[in-house]
Amino acid sequence: MSSKENAAISQLLALLEARYAIRVLWALRDGHAQTFRLLQDSVGGITPNTLNTRIKELREAGLMTHGTDGYVVTPSGVDLLKRLADLPAFAAKWTAAQSKKKQVLP
Predict the structure, then answer these.
(1) Would you state the pLDDT for residue 106?
(2) Residue 99's pLDDT is what?
(3) Across-strand partners of 72?
(4) HTH hxlR-type domain: which residues (predicted)?
(5) Which string of b and e fits 2-19 if b means at least 16 CB within 10 Å?
(6) Are the beta carbons of 41 and 35 closer than 8 angstroms?
(7) Strand locations in the chain (E)
(8) Total domain count, the chain
(9) For residue 40, which of 28, 30, 32 has the smallest C-alpha distance?
(10) Contacts by 96-101, CB closer than 8 A, 24 or more apart
(11) Domain range holding 73?
């Protein structure tokens, strides 16, 4: 992997590591626009200030935008979410393995 590719990955991960960033995108994965209030409820536990900050960052990154009906993911955001589509299956396997590991420990 080139240093340019590493830098791009690091930049994307830094954006997604921000508190609630991935959850904001995930809440929009079905393609339906959400108002600020609905998005806040969908994410759960996020303060209005934090949501405003994440929206600003994700909009600047070109991953979401505000349309006539509310916030939606952009084509780039859709592409990222498609690439993350295997996450639920992986998470289920991972948590099952973690549970088994805890049961084995004395």
Answers:
(1) 63
(2) 87
(3) 65
(4) 16-96
(5) eeeeeeeeeeeeebbeee
(6) no
(7) 64-66, 71-73
(8) 1
(9) 28
(10) none
(11) 3-104
58: domain CATH number?
1.10.10.10
Q: How far apart are CA 31 and CA 2, in angstroms?
A: 33
Handedness of CA 20, 80, 77, 14 (dihedral sign): positive
The mean pLDDT value of the chain amounts to 93
Categorize the per-residue pLDDT at 87 as very low, low, confident or very high, splitting at 50, 70 and 90: confident
pLDDT tens digits, one per residue of 33-74? 999 999 999 999 999 999 999 999 999 999 999 999 999 999
Residue 11's contacts (CB-CB under 8 Å, 6 or more residues apart) are: none
| Closest by CA position to 31, among listed 86, 68, 83, 77 | 77
* 8 A C-beta contact, residue 5 and residue 48: no
